[in-house]
Amino acid sequence: MTEKNAEIKKKMKKALDKDRYRHTVSVAYTAACLAMRYAIDPEVAFTAGLLHDCAKCIPTAEKFKLCEKYKVELSDFEKTNTALIHAKLGACLAEKRYGISDKDILDSIRTHTTGEPDMSLLQKIIFTADYIEPGRDQASNLPEIRQMAFVDLDKAVCKILSDTLAYLGKKKDAPIDPMTRKTYEFYCEQKGGSK
Ligand code: DGI
Ligand code: FE
Ligand code: FE
Predict the structure, then answer these.
(1) Among 54, 168, 181, which is best to mutate for testing ligand 1, by the most ligand atoms less than 8 A from CB?
(2) Distance between CA 51 and CA 9 in Å, rounded?
(3) Half-sphere exposure of 161 (CA within 13 A, CB side)
(4) Domains and their CATH numbers in the chain
(5) Residue (of 178, 174, 124) closest to 149 by Cα position
(6) Inter-residue contact 186 to 118 (CB < 8 Å)
(7) What tens digit of pLDDT does each residue of 91-116 get?
(8) Relative to the CA of 81, which ligand 1 atom is closest?
(9) Does the structure show a pLDDT above 80 at 66?
(10) C-alpha span between 30 and 131 (Å, rounded)
(11) Closest atom, ligand 1, to C-alpha of 84
């Protein structure tokens, strides 16, 4: 691990609660493994993994204040479904607080919850690593998706999205973010290409 990643890891230990920190480290290592498989820099993937939930443990009122301070524009959906804010705000804090300037890393943090159409390899890796890291045990089809992620990443992204939509559809008070639906359409219906 690079010195820089070791420093970010230490900072995340302070910024997150115990469980979130454990999840974060797992996502970072999973993302690094996927990066090796798909031939991109594993240290870059590790950084994105470490920071993907950096805004997750900030209380909601504070999240709104920070979004105002840094002019992070929230959609109407995010304003009412505040659990989604940590992705966009996380990308902003990765830049302002943790000194990240790599746009691909910032995009990967921003889109890690809903995805977006036509994602870069790193964006897809963070989106997928967040779902399949070894500590996750709630989602259905995890063994299959874990294997799929290392064989066909676009197919894994599609499966994660369709399972997430099915899960949210069954749950009470869990409206679907329009971006989650758009991402689903891109990866599952159009069978669109990737960057
Ligand atoms: O932050 P994590 O828990 O590691 O994972 P995440 O960033 O994917 O956030 C997970 C939560 O986001 C999970 O409870 C499902 C929710 N989520 C994802 N897409 C949507 C969504 N919630 C709503 N309401 N609508 C969505 O489209
Ligand atoms: Fe998250
Ligand atoms: Fe996460």
Answers:
(1) 168
(2) 9
(3) 27
(4) 3-140 (1.10.3210.10)
(5) 124
(6) yes
(7) 999 999 999 999 999 999 999 999 99
(8) 24
(9) yes
(10) 10
(11) 12
